[in-house]
Amino acid sequence: MPVPLARSTRRRLAGAVTTVLAVTLGATALTAPAYAAPVAGGVLAAEAATTADPIAYPKSGRLVGAGVTGFLTTSNTNITTFRRYADGTGQGYDGAVYLRSTPTTDFLVFRGAYQITQRNLATNGSLEVPIGSLTGADAKWAGAAGDAVFTTVVTEAGTVLRKHVDEAPTVTVTGLPADASSVMVTPATPAHAKVAFTQNGLGKWGLLDLATGVLTLGTPGVGAQAVSATHTAWSAAAATDPGPRVFVADRATGAVQEAPVPQAPSSGNLQVGLVGDWVLYGQKGGMGFAQPSVHHAITAYNLTTKATVKVLDHAYEFTSAPDGSLYARGGLVGRGEGMYRIAATGGDTLTAELVAATGEPTEVVATASTVPPAVLDLDRVNGFVFKWTLSRDVWNPKLTVRHVRTGKSYAMTGAPSSSTPAFAWVDNNWDADVPNGDYTWEFTGEPVNGIGPDVTAKGAFKVVRKAQPHDFDDNGSPDLLSRDSAGRLWRTDLFYRPIDERRGINEAGARTYLGSGWGVYDRIEAAGNLGGTPVGDLLARDKSGVLWLYQGNGTGNFATRVHVGGGWQVYDKITSGSDLTNDGRVDALATDRSGALWLYTGTGSATKPFLPRKKIGTGWGVHNDITAVGNIAGGPAGDLVARDKDGILWLYLGKGDGTFAPRTKIGSGWNAFRPLIAAGDADGDGRPDLMGLGATYETPKLYKSTGDWKAPFRTGEVMHLEQVNANQSDLVF
Predict the structure, then answer these.
(1) Closest residue by Cα to residue 176 from 148, 154, 145, 201
(2) pLDDT, tens digit, 9 for 90 and up, residues 336-357
(3) What gap in Å lies between CA 364 and CA 562, rounded to an integer?
(4) What secondary structure does DSSP assign to 459-483, as a single string?
(5) DSSP, res 654
(6) What is the distance between the alpha carbons of residues 618 and 482, in angstroms, rounded to a whole number?
C-alpha cells in the first residue's frame, strides 16, 4: 500500500553538474587484454552545464530501477519509493514493488500474494493478473519487463511462460524448454527481456523479444549480467585467475572480447553495465570495504577504440534505463554521493550527470573538529586534545605538531581505524618538552577503502605561559644550572611526571653544556625575568664585586652579559625571581655582612634592571640562606623563605610594598640541603614550588606549595636527579 512521503518544493536551478569524460586514444586492435590502470587513456575533459541542480536522493536508499520519468529506491525499512526526475517528489510503498518501462512510459508493478497489479504512470490505468501458490494450474509470478507482466503455469506439457499486457490477450512465450524451472524475467533492452531459468540443475538464460514473444536461448557458458541492443557482458573469475575478468559478446557475431581489468585480488566478481560502445565495470559497494582495491573505481572500456576511462570512484549498484543510459548509485570525488546518469554521446565521450544527490561527499571530510585556540595558555590548561569527527573511517590517522622556532616535531598516531580520531598533546606529561611560541599542526588520514584522497587539516596556534624563574629553555618546566670545577656551565632540563614509579621531578635527558669561563664568578643567581624576555635570566657577581645580567634567550642559553653595577661584594646572600612590590616586575634582595636586608626594585629593563637600593630590615645575619619563592601563601605579593643556622626554615609573607610580615616557622631539619631553589611552578598546579638539593648522600626533594601560609608546603617528594647526584661536587643554583 502507498506510504505518503513529504513532497519536495525545491525548484531545480541552473548548475554545472555533468562531467564529460573524453577518451583521446585512437582505435587499436586488442589481441589480448591489456591489464592497465583503470584511467589509462582517459581524461576529465570538461563540465557541461545542465538546466538543473540535483534533486535529493535518500542516503540509505538502494537504487532498484530507473525509468523514463523517475527512479525507484528501497530502504532498510522495506519501503520502496518512486521519485520523479523533474522535482524529486515521490511516493512510498510497502511490499514488493518494481519499476518497468517502455521507451515512453513508466509502470509500477505491485506483487501481492494473490495478484499482480501493474499501474501505468502516464494514464494511471492498471492491469491486474491473478496468481496463486498451488502447483499446476495456479499461475506464479515470473517477473515483468517493458509494459508486460509474466507468469508461469505448469501443464501436462511442462512449464509455460505467459505474457500479460493491458487490453491485449495473454500470449504464450515460445522457445522456453518444457522442463525449465525457477523462471525469472527481467528487463534487458527496450525491445527485449532477459529470461533466466534452471534446466537439469544448470542455470541458463535467453533473450525474449517483447514484440513477438519469442525466446532465443543464450550461448551455453556465456553469461549475461548486462545486455544492450548490440552486446552482452558478464564478469567471471576462475580459481586460477589472479583477479576478476570481464567479457563482452557481440550479439550479432558472437565474438567475445575481454576488457582490461587489472588482475589483482578482489572480493568477488565485478558488476557490469553497457552504454553504447562502452562496457562499465567495478566492484559493487566499494565504499563499504575496509581496504583499498583497484576495482572500486567504475571504469568504462570502449569496445571499438580500446580506451579506458574512470567514470566514478565507486558505485553500489547499476540499473539500465529504457533510453540506453545507465544509472549508478555511487560517488565521484569533488561531486559527491548520489545517483549518476551515465550516457554515451557518440565517439569517445561519456557523460556522468549527478541527477540526485545525498549531500554526502565521496572523499573523507571532517564534519566536526576540536583544535587549539589561537593562543593556548598552558598555565591554565594542561595541554590540549585534538579531535575530529570524519565522514568515514581512516587508516592510521596522524597528527604532527611542530614548534616553529626550534623545528621540534611531535608526531602522534591514532587508533588503526577510526572516524573519530583524538590526540592528546599534553604539557608536563611524561617526558613532554613543549616550548612556548608559535606552533603549526597538520592532521592526515588515509581512507580505509582507498577511495578519494587523504583527509588533511592544518592550523597554527601559540603556546604561552608566565615566565618561570628557573625555566631557561622556555618550555614551562624548571631547569637546574650547575658549574663544575673547570668553570663550565651546564643545564639540566627537568619535568614533572604525575604517575608511575618515577612520579615527581625527573631529568628530561642528558645535561646540556652551555659554555666555559664561568669560574670568574663567586655568586650566580637565577633571577627570573629581569630584562623583559619571556624566560628566566641570571645574575652573576665576579670576584671584584661587579654584578652582571645574563638574559635568557629562550633556547636554554644566555645572551651576552650586561653590566649592572659594582660594589656587590658587600653582600653575603642574594636572591631574585619574585615580584615583591606587586608591580608585575621581578625584584631582588640582598643581605650585607652586618645583617641588613636591602630591596632592589626591578625596572624591567636589561640596561638598568634595578632602582637604587632600599633598606627594609636588620638582623638577617642569623640566616645562612634566603630564597625569593614567589607567592606561595596567598598574600598580595611574592614571599621569602629563610633558613637559619640551626636548620629552621621561616616564612616571610610579602606585603606587596617590598616589606614582609613577621616571620612564621615552617619547620626544622632544612640544613640537610645545600641550596634551596625557587623552582617556579614545577608540577603545573599554578603555584610556585621549592626544591631542596641534598648535601652528599642526601636525597633531593620537591616541596609543592599549598597556598596556605599556615602550612605553606606539602611533604617533600623525592626528585630523581641521577646526573645531578653524580656530580655532587658541582655548584648547583
Answers:
(1) 154
(2) 999 999 999 877 789 999 999 9
(3) 57
(4) EEEEEE----TT-SSSSSS-EEEEE
(5) B
(6) 31
